[in-house]
Amino acid sequence: MTGYQDFVKIFGSGIFIKSNEITKNYSLQKALSSLYIIPTFFRGIHYIPTNRERKGHFIERKQDFFTSLFDVHYGKKKWYWGLSTAARHYGIEWSATKILEIVAQEKSKTINVSDKILSLQKKKSYRSATLAKYLSSLDVNFIYIHKGNQESLSSIKIDEIIGPVCTKEQIPKDIEKFHSKIRNHNLKKIYKRIISK
Fold it and tell me: With contact defined as beta carbons under 8 Å apart, do 102 and 82 qualify?
């Protein structure tokens, strides 16, 4: 049995796991260096790829990946797909921006995925090149996390395909609240289109 199979036997695969859960039964450093786990955009949370994903260096179910990651980091019903991402879900907006937007109870944050990929590719090690392939397979350039409040979070609907999403009525309210903090001009144009509909 390989080291990866041993690892999966203990922890499972296709799931997220926190560093402290790994260290109870396994060396975190070995799991990271052997690519049994993939670091995520949040410190201390890792993804265990399935055997198929590990062989191909890709994430198979992108939507589930992000929904589960945000559930683990923020907690269920403490975040939702919002703004342009929610507008695409409802068919109000169709542009393929490679941008994801969520609203959560924690502080605002922008995750530049494309910069992370470039940084990994420059390192030229096998591990860095492999991690870059995993991130590239997600097909996302930016993730915008907007700080919401209890009122906005009360608009959550649970969709069976994408998980927690705000109501249609919440989209223009959130755009009005957050658009001034966004520097991405393309995204601002999308906001204008959404509001004009």
Answer: yes
- Average pLDDT for residues 39-46, to the nearest whole number? 97
The pLDDT-based confidence of 81 (bands split at 50, 70, 90) is: very high
Residue 103 has pLDDT above 50, yes or no: yes
Q: Where are the domains of the chain?
A: 1-56, 61-196
What would you report as the CA-atom Rg of the chain, rounded to the nearest whole angstrom?
18
Question: Per-residue DSSP letters for the chain?
Answer: --HHHHHHHHH-SSEEEEHHHHHTTS-HHHHHHTTSSEE-SSTTEEEE--HHHHHHTS-S-HHHHHHHHHHHHH-TTSEEE-HHHHHHHTTS------EEEEEESS--EEEEHHHHHHHHHHH--HHHHHHHHHHHHT--SEEEEEE--HHHHTT-EEETTTEEE--TTHHHHHHHHHGGG---HHHHHHHHHHHH-
Summarize the confidence of residues 126-143 as an average pLDDT: 97
Kindly state the average pLDDT of the residues 91-113.
Answer: 94
Computed over every residue of the chain, the mean pLDDT equals 95
**Model confidence pLDDT, tens digit, residues 54-63:** 999 999 999 9
Q: How many CB atoms lie within 10 A of CB 6?
A: 12
Please state, in angstroms and as integers, the Cα–Cα distance from residue 174 to each residue in 102, 129, 168, following that order: 10, 37, 10
